[in-house]
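This follows on from our talk about sequence and fold. Can you supply me with one protein entry, sequence and fold together? Could you add the entry underneath, on a fresh line?
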Amino acid sequence: MGGLEDGELPALDELRDELVRTLPPQRAATIVHGDYRLDNTILHPTVPGRIVAVLDWEMSTLGDPLTDLGTLLAYWSESRDDDVIAAARVMAPVTAAEGFPSRSEIVERYAARTGFDVADVEWYHAFAFFKLAVVCQGIAARAAGGAMLGSGFDDAQRIVAPLVAAGDKVLAIGR
């Protein structure tokens, strides 16, 4: 079948295998937030765009800092997103509004500020979609087994395939 019912997700496994095959060399090891996105920050009340705090560090670890950049890019929306990327949105497309930088502008700013080589940024972006797909698949499996309380978990399974497709698309761009 290839779905939640039988535990088989060939497309997710294929994306995982391609990520493993194309893994770029780690250039640095830092504290990595693990879920870096706009809604895990507190913004300055009067200085637009200035972050004064980063919240929700429970997924933090040591690793390649580009994984946080990739995560931010996966959550970031643009008005010109195609159907594949738009279908993988897990939150409202706030950043598609006028005044927000594009993903490429974020990458340029990141590279300028950190001095890191961002040539493999698509891999990290694809990895973030893969991670989100795995998290959603886990939520869907727990919900199907009755282990999740409350509502809002029904969409978790629905978003897995679009997240995998977005990961495939972004990874292909980087090749």
Notes: The chain has a mean pLDDT of 91.
